[in-house]
Amino acid sequence: MSTLQTEALIIGGGVTGTGIMRDLALRGIHSILIEKNDLCAGASGGNHGLLHSGGRYVSNDIQSAVECRIENAILKNIAPHCIEETGGLFVGVAGDDEQFGILFPSYCKAAEIECEELDAAEARLLEPSLSADLIKAYLVPDATIDPFHLALENVEHARMHNGSQYLPHCLIQGFERKDDILAGAVCLDQRTGKTFRIEARQFINAGGGWAMNIARLAGCDDVRLLWSKGTLLVSHARLTDRVINRLRPPSDGDILVPGGTVSILGTTSVRTGDIDNVRPTVEEVNKNVREGMAMIPTLATTRFIRAFSRVRPLVQSGNQDDDRNIARSFSLFDHSSSLRNFCTITGGKLTTYRLMAEKTADLVAGRLGNTATCTTGTTPLPDSSSCKWTKPGASPRYWYVSKNPADMILCECEMVPQSAITQIIADSPGGEDDMSLESIALRTRAGKGPCQGSFCGIRIASHLYDQKYYTNDSGLYHMRDFFSERFKGMRSVIWGQQMAQMELAEALHCGLLGLENLPPKVKGD
Amino acid sequence: MKQETRYIDTELAVIGTGLAGIAAAIFALNRGISCTLTGNTGALAYTTGYLDLLGFSDSRFISAPWDALGDLAKSCPGHPLAGIAPTKIAEAFTEFTNFIGSIGVGYSPPGQENLRAITPAGTLKPTLCVPLTMIKGITALHSKAPCTVFGFHGLKGFSAHQIAANLKSIWPEIEARTIHFPGHESGELYAEVAARALEVPQNRILLAEILKHEGAGSSYLGLPAILGMHNPDEIHADLERLSGFSIFEIPTMPPSVPGIRLREIIEQTLPAKGITMIPQQKIRKIEFHKEKITLSLFDNYGPIAITARTVLLATGRFLSGGLEAHFDHISEPLIHLPVHQPPSREKWYQEEYLDSRGHEIHLAGIETDGSFRPLKNDGTVYDKRLFAAGIVLAHQDWIRQRCGAGVAIATASAAVDAIIEHLAQ
Questions:
Q1: Which residues on B lie below 8 Å from A282 (Cβ)?
Q2: Predicted TM-score (pTM) above 0.95
Q3: Chain B contacts of A457, Cβ < 8 Å?
């Protein structure tokens, strides 16, 4: 069994894990980040992409509200290329709790969050799709953030800085424990089926929803999580300029967030016990649409191209009936009663990922005797060329500027050219041999448009065969897996024009190419 | 300016110019019935040119489709193909392919066995009849003779290397080359443009020179389906003569040339044979009066009113607009016929995309009596002058069963028989 060595092993490639990787690198600490899937595969990649002003939490979780306010300002400063400063509105409609609407500015004031009241006519001038039944509106500094871009840049910055390594598709299988010290970790490369060891001085569990299971592998049972499944919908076109929040205590279907060329509606909140197989249901989709219609009536006739579900880890303390009332702040466990070089960070939210990484890195650096202070709040996040392709609308701009007619567009919905694919397989963070279409799609906008990859998956595979990057039947399996994966997000929103899209897709994938009848593939083959 | 309404009187109005609509018009023509062919072209341009009868049943590859039809009648009695005698289906295929061949797009006749036809991914697909420009791909694969597949720089979604890489294990002497299309040095190459370019003899000479050089040592050459638009058989023969190789076409990703060929050849030749064609226009309204059926539509020259003695609905499924999917139900938007469908949206699709059972939504569609007359909710005929054919019909999964052309051609034939019987009364 081969062995890798590092100062700190980070488990979990969400925004927090990648943030810790960057934070440690800036302090001069080398790390290896392992992820059983690929970047942002859990809650990091399955949310609204909302950079909270804090307004959402002012009424029931002031600590989270304040953290959001501070981190919102920091991220706008260090990572403007991952953020769109949209602004946000909190809107109340006829029938909503008027008292909540009246108290909202005082809640914001307590958390020192900017909040400007607009009259209904002004608000509808800013956002014409808002309901005619609008009764209250406040403007807050919400923004949107691209977690994939953020995670890729974090990893790339750490790599550039001190050669820290990111290993996708590597599953933690167990730890080697000697008394109160972890000496090593045993990992499985899920693509090759080979196990290997990683020796480290510090072990960091940034497993998000999976953090409880990982902590138990290390013999720590003090991490107790509840899992809340959230389902969100992606519309075909962008519906509003700003983030639209319902002016009421958090509930279903009450946030609509623009995401470049689309909008994201959500979310529902259902307790779940199965974190590995969450999928949107038709019922959750219908609920989001019905609730969202109160704010944005056009949602009734909006074309949706995708729905997705992820599990939020909520750190358990005492008895709570409603998951929305569990504090959304994060928890850092130092496990010092049983282990001296293991910690767990979980809970929290995308907006506060940097702060979570800072607190974790403070603990880890202290244990390593490293006295450098955290600089992630002031050091700009680089804007690297291989990480730029996740940004909505960016691909057509680069393509247009380069004026190279030979650089053909492979994803026609999102205008992703061949050159983007070439660059990603050459040097994107986590790029590997025989990269899957899913891995490529994660690093670009490919497959994010109305056809959801049905066409571009075929074109990209052909391109990679022509480049002799795929040389055997692996491309067929990559297509099959990619289309199957994209379908999970399409299944619950197939009606209207999406039905025609889906019918054509299946006619190609099955009727023509026969991908449903490929012989079973041996694992690790 | 108010445009004058034009009036057309016809024995049969066919709504839908996909495969089923075209087949019905041809069968009507051959039987001396006056026929007007209207409606959207639908998904014809998305076809590969392969005409499937029945390729899979219960996710098993079918080699002997005629025998399998008998099993289908037992396992799936509501299937549109189950109610038609195999000999009748064979005759319909023969009549259809003969006719298409006579107007310029030659087809292999229906055989006893399914052919194993090459797809642009390098997989194999069971099908019954293929264009003559593609037939040598089947014999080449069968003989495992040395073969070079060519792709063109700029032709997206078609990789010769992909086809060769995936066929290599069963066809060791298959090779791949990517070449420049004559006169096309850079940028995107559209299959349709390349096909029209090869109508020019000089371009064929230039291409043949490249093939001679790059294909040396091969007996067969495979090319993407771009060998001309209007007389592919002649262009194919000419390129074989110029290059000295046996050549076959492989379908490209849609919209593909073989589908456009069919559409264009039909639009160009059917009117001269006496069929009234109003393609690409959607029927706005259809009314069933006691004496006649009226259909209203518009084209670039203004309104058209058709009075018909019988109507054949061949409007296809969701992609062509024959069925519509709403938030909670499926509808047939033109006549508002009842649609057989799963009880709720939750049941439309399986959890897994590639579930071998297929998706229930594909079995949705129009239910008919034995004469292909759509039924009302109470099980009685909607109107004795209204018939339906093609994949708008319920209880078939044309995608998974690879039976799209089979359902189109067979049900068009059976429906036209029923229409003749009705007209004779």
A1: 344-346
A2: no
A3: none
Question: Is there a contact between B156 and A516 if contact means CB atoms under 8 Å apart?
Answer: no
pLDDT (tens, 9 = 90+) of chain A, 525 residues, equals 899 999 999 999 999 999 999 999 999 999 999 999 999 999 999 999 999 999 999 998 999 999 999 999 999 999 999 999 999 999 999 999 999 999 999 999 999 999 999 999 999 999 999 999 999 999 999 999 999 999 999 999 999 999 999 999 999 999 999 999 999 999 999 988 999 999 999 999 999 999 999 999 999 999 999 999 999 999 999 999 999 999 998 888 899 999 988 999 989 999 999 888 899 999 999 999 999 999 999 999 999 999 999 999 988 864 455 565 555 689 999 999 999 999 999 999 999 999 999 999 999 999 999 999 999 999 999 998 877 787 777 777 777 777 787 888 888 888 888 888 888 888 777 776 788 998 888 888 888 888 889 999 999 999 999 999 999 999 999 999 999 999 999 999 999 999 999 999 999 999 999 999 999 876 544
A499 shares contact with chain B (CB less than 8 Å): yes
Query: Can you give the three-state secondary structure of chain B, one letter per residue?
Result: CCCCCEEEEEEEEEECCCHHHHHHHHHHHHCCCCEEEEECCCCHHHCCCCECCCCEECCEECCCHHHHHHHHHHHCCCCHHHHCCHHHHHHHHHHHHHHHHHCCCCECCCCCCCEEEECCCCCEEEECECECCCHHHHHHHHHCCCEEEEEECCCCCCCHHHHHHHHCCCCCCEEEEEECCCCCCCCCCCHHHHHHHCCCHHHHHHHHHHHHHHCCCCCEEEEECCCCCCCHHHHHHHHHHHHCCEEEEECCCCCCHHHHHHHHHHHHHCHHHCCEEEECECCCEEEECCCCEEEEEEECCEEEEEEEEEEEECCCCCCCCCCEECCCCEECCCCCCCCECCCCHHHCCCCCCCCCCCCHHHHCEECECCCCCEECCCCCECCCCEEECCCCECCCCHHHHCCHHHHHHHHHHHHHHHHHHHHHC
CA distance, residue B256 to nearest chain A CA (Å) = 12
ipTM of the complex: 0.96
Q: Choosing among A477, A499, A504, which should be mutated to test the B contact, i.e. which has the most B CBs within 10 A?
A: A499
CB nearest B159 (choices: A465, A495, A512): A465
Q: Does A484 lie at the interface with B, CB-CB under 8 angstroms? A: yes
Please give, rounded to a whole number of angstroms, the shortest distance from the CA of B247 to a CA of chain A.
21
- Report A:178-217 residues touching B (Cβ under 8 A): none
